[in-house]
Amino acid sequence: MRLAILILILTLTSQAKAQWDIEDSHTTASLRGIDSIGDGVAWASGTNGTVLRTQDDGSHWQACTIPPGADKLDFRGIQVFDANTAIVMSSGKGDLSRIYKTTDGCQTWKLVFTNPDADGFFDSVNRVTTKQLYLLGDPVDGKFSMYFSSDAGATWFGTDDPGLDADKGDGAFAASNSSFTSKAIFLFFGTGGGSAAHVYYSYSKCGASGNCPMAWAKSEVPIAAGSPASGVFSLALRATMNLSGKVQTALVAIGGVHDKPQLSDRTAATSSDGGKTWLLAQTMPGGYRSAVVFDSATQTWITVGPNGTDISRDDGRNWKPLKPTKEDAPDADKNWNALSLPFVVGPNGRIGKLRPTALNP
Questions:
Q1: Cβ neighbourhood burial of 110 (10 Å; 0-12, 13-18, 19+)
Q2: Is there a contact between 292 and 339 (Cβ–Cβ < 8 Å)?
Q3: pLDDT tens per residue, the chain (361 residues)?
Q4: Per DSSP, what are the bridge partners of residue 34?
Q5: What are phi and psi of 101, to 5 degrees?
């Protein structure tokens, strides 16, 4: 009997697989932007004008040419079109918020847009179709800034959508380029910093003329709020179509208190009606979280932050930690900023690749 148990233990041990591959980025930059588009192609971005690119699924990360005048910029967001074409967004006050574009595999860059407002601050850039992008900025004169590009980021213009008015102290967070998300015609962004956290969601405001321009509404989210470092830091969604052909959207909001990362109270909330109403998660992630994504292959939500990684299989109602195996580094689940599966990035040039089997039930 003892021999059989020993054989079973040895078999299970031999079958144990690492969940994270920690990769060599050859940089010490703090990374907050990551966009993986499949076929082994992913780009990352961070401080000091840093942009990285891989074409072999993370085996090698290429250091890109620093865009002109960007050696001190903080690239908080990146959106990728193909192996050679991408735009990168810097965050900072006024003209420190910029958009650069490359079409030759990051050998050269062109400055295509600079924040026109001296008090503005870019938070997140989001590609909604093959050529259409939206760019979210903090409120200027009491209204969130929204910019649009219809030509893959070559040119930009400001929108004047109704409903973008901000409460006092309210702003968005540039922590992981995921405070803004979309699916088809549905756009969402999360906010914090004021007395309450919010999610703004788009809708078509049709008039008597038959025109249906975009407008925004907002809902209060029971995520931790009341300080400049608290609120909704990341949003992800899962869209399905019911039998009548109507699209139903499940949303998960993640956040907490950035400067108190161990606090797990009110760090996750869910919406089953497209962002109109929200409920707190029943079991919270283990602390402040900066990014969340939905993995359709395993029907799993995954969220990361400085003190851990958590997963949910019930649309964000209950979360459990995804702990390292014995094959992983003890801190493999910690010190992460942003997600674009299978890649995750963090401070000091930290890049990880989550193995697909890690999310299997």
A1: middle
A2: yes
A3: 454 444 444 434 334 468 999 999 999 999 999 999 999 999 999 999 999 999 999 999 999 999 999 999 999 999 999 999 999 999 999 999 999 999 999 999 999 999 999 999 999 999 999 999 999 999 999 999 999 999 999 999 999 899 999 999 999 999 999 999 998 778 999 999 999 999 999 988 765 555 667 899 999 999 999 999 999 999 999 987 666 667 678 999 999 999 999 999 999 999 999 999 999 999 999 999 999 999 999 999 999 999 999 999 999 999 999 999 999 999 999 999 999 999 999 999 999 999 989 998 8
A4: 44
A5: -135, 145
What 8-state DSSP symbol labels residue 204?
Answer: E
What domain count does the chain have?
1
Is 8 among the domain residues?
Answer: no
Count the Cβ atoms, other than its own, within 10 Å of residue 138: 24
**Beta bridge pairs of residue 295:** 300
Task: Domain of residue 192: give its range.
Answer: 17-359
Single-letter amino acid, residue 137: G
Helix (H/G/I), strand (E/B), else coil: 330: coil
Whether the predicted model's global pTM rises above the 0.90 cut = yes
| Type of residue at 79 | Q
* Domain membership flag for residue 4: no
Upstream peptide bond of 324 is cis (omega within 30 degrees of 0): no
Q: Find where tokens 């009491």 sit.
A: 142
Specify which residues 239 forms β-bridges with: 249
Residue 142 included in any domain: yes
CA distance 259 to 261: 6
Residue 301 lies in a domain: yes
| Distance in Å from the first CA to the final CA of the chain | 30
Give 238: exposed, middle or buried? Use CB within 10 Å, 0-12, 13-18, 19+: middle
SS3 303: strand
Give me the CATH number covering residue 23: 2.130.10.10
Q: What is the largest CA-CA distance in the chain?
A: 81
Q: Which residues, including other chains, have CB under 8 Å from residue 89's CB and lie 6 or more apart?
A: 33, 75, 76, 77, 78, 79, 97, 98, 99, 122, 124, 125, 135, 177
